[in-house]
Specification:
heterodimer, A: 328 residues, alpha/beta, Rossmann fold, Alpha-Beta Plaits, 2 domains, four-stranded antiparallel beta sheet, 10 helices, 14 strands, 30% helix, globular, B: 261 residues, mainly alpha, 11 helices
Chain lengths: 328, 261
């Protein structure tokens, strides 16, 4: 089966900042590919090039077999994008907005009406379906607007769905509905490129993951492969006191498979067999006042993700990670 | 007919919609989103018409019928230019800032249709200005107009399209903040420094020559000829100048809509 999205060697600069640096990735039909990365990692820049809002400096983008760099208008007919910014629905009700988006995406008037009804139930937004969105964020909450924007994107079957942070502002129960809706679109044959920094939730529905860091692909593969450890491994999370030093980690009495420092948190991946030893050690650290607290849980993808994207050398923090050149 | 259904769902296909259908959908989208502001736009037009026809009248003591006619037949042009050169670019600048502009550009549509739909909506909003202007002039000065309908319709359409296209072009060519600033300056230029509500002969010669190639004076004179055909005459040259500005505005806008950053 041919890819619905095939990106090779994609490079895009903004002045001195390289927002996308030789990025290669693919999305097959029926596949949900998560694109992970910190703010400013280049995710939105990548998406903007796929839909023809930005022109790449180098590299190729093929969308459904069409060269998206040479023929952006033709390529756009294969793509539905939910951008990170809110969709323009001021003056509209979610129902009208979804129907209009369906019409633009080729549904008949009758089919568009039915699709709006189905999506209202699928995303549990029926109480707001006929409430008008007003300017300055009045009328509808940010979460309902975001769900409406999602519905506008998926209203018609489209070969490639590109969702840029679709769960922002959405409450936990409807986030779950949205993830399920994304998975359903994939199972129905659409390729999905899912841009998110919600690693833990995305892990459950993605087939493949691509991790971007400072414009480069630093890892890709299935969640299991990226986790890189046994499913049985555990994560020992130590919460350091405000002025705590990481030297508490010197000479731990357990086998540490991976260490990630994230702010005042230190995440250690340890084998399941050493759970008791890990707890004993962590308790002693807490009693000695060297950590504020600890927790022991199954290792997650987030640990692997943080390990991949945290600066390798703390002594030389990169300026690029703090910049946000990718807003379009 | 036998039913041939496969177990696998059919793969989603690329969007196939006729341009006419897309245009109608975009038009509905535009009308629906501008809808809540429409009463405000109509009130602003009425106030502007009153302000120009009644207010400018105060500047001229013992206004004679000829001057009143000139003032009144210029007022609709001021209204159309204000909408096209000020309200339109401010809306576009806002759309660029809040992401609407790029959202619409990422849809599976021919991007020129975005401009077509938007210009249609502005035509619908702006054209009643001409009627409002005529009505206010009748009430205030008890004037009788002599309409030349073909010229009037052509002039009103062309002035509105030109102002909307140029306004759009300004908004997509400049940074949103700068575009807002330029439109503020344009209001003053249109209201006070363009021979729309007063005869061009009152200006220095070099400024008259400049106004021969700018769109304001030709637009005003053309519309005037449509409203009071017994007093004023339409000129082919004015029509040409307007058309050139119209094409220029549309070309710059289309380029910005299609262009990738």
């Amino acid at each position: 089966m041919s890819d619905v999205l095939h990106v090779t060697g994609l490079t895009r600069r903004f002045g001195a900042v390289v927002a996308n640096d030789d990025v290669t990735l693919r999305v097959r039909p029926g596949e949900v590919v998560g694109l992970l990365g910190h703010n400013g990692a280049g995710k939105t820049t990548l998406v903007s090039q796929v839909v023809g809002l930005l022109r790449p400096d180098a590299g190729t983008i093929r969308v459904g077999g069409t060269d998206a760099v040479a023929h952006p208008a033709a390529a756009r007919r294969h793509v539905a994008l939910q951008p990170q910014a809110q969709a323009p629905i001021d003056g509209l009700t979610p129902r009208t907005a979804i129907e209009l988006a369906g019409r633009v995406r080729g549904l008949s008037a009758r089919r568009a009406r039915a699709a709006a009804e189905e999506l209202a139930d699928e995303l549990d937004i029926r109480p707001w379906l006929d409430r008008r969105a007003l300017p300055e964020g009045r009328g509808l909450s940010g979460g309902i607007r975001r769900l409406t924007a999602f519905a506008m994107t998926v209203v018609a079957p489209t070969p490639l769905l590109v969702l840029d942070e679709p769960t922002n502002d959405i409450d936990a129960s409807r986030r779950r509905l949205l993830w399920e809706a994304v998975r359903r679109r994939g199972d129905a044959g659409a390729g999905v490129l899912l841009v998110t920094h919600n690693v833990t939730e995305a892990e459950r529905i993605v087939d493949e993951l691509v991790v971007l860091d400072r414009g480069r692909v630093v890892a890709s593969g299935s969640p299991t492969r990226l986790r890189g450890t046994q499913d049985t491994d555990l994560r020992l999370e130590l919460q350091l006191p405000p002025d705590g030093a990481a030297d508490v980690l010197d000479g731990p009495p357990v086998t540490v498979l991976r260490t990630v420092r994230a702010g005042r948190r230190v995440l250690l991946t340890v084998p399941a067999g050493q759970a008791a030893a890990a707890v004993t050690w962590a308790t002693s650290l807490r009693d000695a006042g060297r950590v504020d607290g600890y927790s022991l849980a199954p290792a997650t993808l987030e640990d692997a993700y943080l390990a991949l994207t945290s600066p390798a050398d703390d002594a030389a923090p990169s300026a690029a990670t703090d910049q946000e050149p990718a807003r379009v | 007919m036998s039913e041939t259904r496969t177990a696998l769902p059919s793969r989603p296909a690329p969007v196939q919609v006729s341009q006419g259908s897309t245009y109608r959908t975009l038009l509905r989208w535009q009308v629906a989103s501008i809808g809540p502001f429409l009463p405000l736009v109509v009130i602003i037009q009425a106030l502007l018409a009153g302000g120009i026809i009644v207010g400018f009248g105060f500047l001229i003591p013992d206004i004679d019928p000829a001057t009143a006619l000139f003032l009144s037949t210029g007022a609709p042009t001021v209204l159309l230019l204000t909408i096209g050169l000020v309200i339109v670019p401010q809306g576009v600048a806002r759309a660029r800032t809040d992401g609407t502009f790029n959202y619409m550009r990422s849809l599976p549509i021919a991007r020129p249709l975005l401009l077509a739909a938007e210009m249609t909506v502005w035509l619908l909003i702006a054209l009643p200005s001409v009627a409002v202007g005529v009505l206010v002039a009748r009430l205030r000065y008890d004037l009788t107009f002599s309409f030349d309908w073909p010229v009037l319709v052509l002039a009103a359409l062309l002035v509105t399209l030109m102002a909307t296209a140029v306004g759009y072009a300004i908004a997509v060519s400049l940074q949103p903040m700068l575009a807002q600033l330029v439109t503020q300056v344009l209001v003053f230029f249109v209201l006070l420094f363009s021979p729309i509500t007063f005869p061009a002969a009152q200006l220095p010669t070099w400024f008259q020559n400049l106004h021969d190639v700018l769109p304001a004076r030709p637009g005003a004179d053309l519309l005037r000829a449509g409203l009071a055909s017994q007093t004023f005459e339409a000129s082919g040259r004015d029509l040409l100048v307007l058309a050139v500005w119209c094409v220029l505005g549309v070309a710059v806008t289309l380029r910005a809509l299609v262009r990738r950053g």
